[in-house]
């Protein structure tokens, strides 16, 4: 569903960030993009949604050639690509719900978004998504009152609100502790499976990539030097991607299965969501507050 052919990027500074990238991503596949700092991971993700202009090659999303689009057609195509950011990119002074609804930007138009008037079905879907990402109890909280993991859950719900076909995920766990990182990766993986969403996840943590991706692509100096299954990522290949290191002493990640207590807590949150939903029912009238 996403095909990159001969994609290259040279920045105006002369830095060659990508060379001859060939990549085909089928529907529903979760692909981790790994590689050392400066390898071109962010550039690749940003070329796909045209935040960065590729200087060479073709990028097709289904039957649309993305590199040729501009104006309204580009805006329209971008709606089918949800972006999840490292630093969450939430508006701190807005509530969780308002932040999620801002995922409708590009659908409802600037002034309606500015005045915080969203269609009723978008509000209803935002409620559903916040429930799904485990935040029904936090709908009316300000974004700056949330933990890092919760902020990332809001970012995920916001990306999903635009019903994307593809998720572009840039270092989703960079600011999170190891356990929360795994929970966030698990959530992204589950959501991709539920919605048959393809995802490209730029990630530094190789253990997380191995555990949660269907496929791993290794970039080095702007070129793909590995493309295979997590089980094929040997120490030799890691050395090809990152350079010499004693990979075999990398510790196994700790088990973080949910305890009964955590499960009960989640149940309680879910129950409480009914109250939150009623309190916030006025949202459905078209005004967020
Ligand atoms: N805006 C820019 N202008 C000029 N050069 C850039 C720009 N952005 C990135 N580069 C260069 O392009 C190359 C790839 O950078 P990129 O940020 O894509 O790598 P990365 O793999 O995402 O790195 P990191 O893991 O540190 O985020 C680097 O040499 C970088 O210096």
UniProtKB/TrEMBL annotation:
It is an enzyme of class 3 (hydrolase). SUPFAM superfamilies: P-loop containing nucleoside triphosphate hydrolases (SSF52540). It is a peripheral membrane protein. The keyword Translocase applies. Residues 243-275 are annotated as: Disordered. Its EC number is 3.6.3.28. PROSITE patterns: ABC_TRANSPORTER_1, ABC_TRANSPORTER_2. One of its GO terms (cellular component) is plasma membrane. Residues 263-275 have a biased composition (Basic and acidic residues). SMART domains: AAA. This is Phosphonate ABC transporter ATP-binding protein. It comes from Vreelandella andesensis.
